[in-house]
Amino acid sequence: MNDNLQERKVKVNLGERSYDIVIGSGLIDEIGLKIKPFVSTKRIFIVSNPTVLNVCKDRVCKSLKDAGFDVNILEVPDGESYKSLEIAYDLYGQLIKHNANRFDTVIALGGGVIGDLAGFVAATYMRGLPFIQVPTTLLAQVDSSVGGKVAVNHPKAKNLIGCFYQPRFVLIDVDILQTLPERELKVGLAEVIKCGFLSGEKFLVFLEEHIGDALVMKKDVLIEIIQRCCAFKAKVVEVDEKDFGKRAILNYGHTIGHVIETITDYKKYKHGEAVSMGMICAAVIANRLGLIQESVVERHKNILKKAGLPIELPQMSPENVIKHLLLDKKKRGEDYTFVLLKDAGEPVIKNVSFEDILESLKLCQ
Ligand code: NAD
Ligand code: GLY
To answer: The domain 8-178: what is its CATH number?
Structure first.
């Protein structure tokens, strides 16, 4: 095998809640043997949706059955709107029907929606079942499957009902991305690029050189990127698992990103696209405040554009932006908290005035 396709491992060190993330090519076919050390009973409950099951159900089930597991599939409809308490309740019902107990294992097989929902159900059914993440979108592989945030949405707000519940193991197979729609791949690349700016020059330069290879799903490049993102996120989560401090840096680009998503009613842009524009705005603010040079703003634009992500913000009236910022949970006093960069790899959390936000926005539209 090409050396660059060799399996990689990232450890998340959280004391008794520590776990490994393995990343490679073809791992789905070995899932049974890979998870065996982390599973104490024969019974496995796979939570997934029809789109993902269509792509890999037979291979996953064969490998698990060959390894001696009894496999039950709990299917939920595909879509963010099904990351809900109603669907969680339905899943509890299915677990009860199978007499599931605290030693059986839940596998989340899907993107971030499935990971968050299955993780929430695993965390709460009988006060917690062992849980394994098998992320199948790039976004889930580089972000949502790592760090233990699990949740369902409330009609009033996304991810409002949830908790921290770490998986026992994360298995990442880049081959599974071959069927991912291109737009979903780009959405994942937005979070990858975010990680590049947060983690520092070395990874950022790698991305600047290889983002085109990622777009055409060159496997060795994807493995390298996923490993670096997971390792970066693991380090952040290890120092601030419950999100009281440093973990907030992972929201780079998200403050204005959320405003764009809500103003456009979550219809026009996908989350990663909004984050892409949010990062541009954050870079322009940082430049206005004298934290970074214009050249760093240009680096944002160049790499996000190369990844096929939007870099020009939609027209939004100042009143509307302020109204939505006021609703933002990160509001503090009269100013607004932003993650900004002092340089690649040097994020800072800063209060920014209305004036600086609105003047910067004008330069981004
Ligand atoms: P998603 O789970 O909706 O997946 C996107 C689409 O791709 C879906 O239609 C899905 O069925 C399909 N899909 C998944 N894998 C596929 C494959 N291999 N081939 C073909 N199609 C495939 O979206 P997402 O972007 O993965 O996740 C978004 C969710 O993640 C949001 O709910 C967000 O709140 C959550 N999230 C959570 C965290 C966290 O830390 N827990 C972090 C970021 C995002
Ligand atoms: N995706 C943000 C976090 O995990 O904290």
So the answer is: 3.40.50.1970
Q: How many residues does the chain have?
A: 365
First CA to last CA across the chain, in angstroms?
A: 47
pLDDT in tens, 88-103: 999 999 999 999 999 9
Taking the CA of residue 248 as reference, the ligand 2 atom at the shortest distance is: 5
Q: Residue 139: what residue type? A: L
Say how many Å lie between the CA of residue 139 and the centre of ligand 1. Answer: 7
Q: Which helix (H) or strand (E) holds 19?
A: strand 19-24
Q: What does the pLDDT look like over 132-148, one tens digit per residue?
A: 999 999 999 999 999 99
Alpha carbon nearest to ligand 2 atom 2, residue: 250
361, two tokens: 């926005």
Q: Give the Å distances, CA to CA, from 36 to 42, 63, 146, 327.
A: 9, 11, 20, 46
Q: What is the Cα–Cα distance from 180 to 137, expressed in whole angstroms?
A: 7
Query: How does pLDDT run across 262-294, given as a tens digit for each residue?
Result: 999 899 999 999 999 999 999 999 999 999 999
Taking CA atoms, 170 is separated from 12, 22, 110, 132, in Å, by 10, 6, 12, 6
Q: Which residue's alpha carbon is at the smallest distance from atom 39 of ligand 1?
A: 144
Q: Rounded to the nearest 5 degrees, what angle is found at the Cα of 288, between the Cα atoms of 285 and 290?
A: 110
Q: Does the CB atom of residue 139 touch ligand 1 within 6 A?
A: yes
For the structural domain made of 182-364, what CATH number should be given? 1.20.1090.10
Q: Residues spanned by CATH 1.20.1090.10 within the chain? A: 182-364
